[in-house]
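Hey, can you fold this one?
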Amino acid sequence: MAQVLSLENFAQEVLQNNSVVLVDFWAEWCGPCRSISPLIDQLEEQYAGKVLVAKVNVDDEPAVAEEYRVSSIPTVFIFKDGIVVERLVGAHPYSEYENTLSKYL
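Sure. Predicted structure:
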């Protein structure tokens, strides 16, 4: 199960993390978000121990979404050493997430 992020734990879990973090910005009502959810879970399994996979519910955490200018969901960010290195907006095939992650490992 992906780490659930909030305003309270975002800095500690993502910005102060010295490895690669994938953050999925999503919402319950978002069909494309639900369609990529199994892909995000699969990435978490595949990269266990190498990548922290986390989720931000934009309805529950609007301040975090606003901070990262998330205006369309799903949006997936890749952070490396606390810095945004990639941003994927919309639903993408598994291979695209995989290829993007592998560039930073």
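Strands lie at 3-4, 20-26, 51-57, 75-80, 83-89. Let me know if you want another pass with a different chain boundary.
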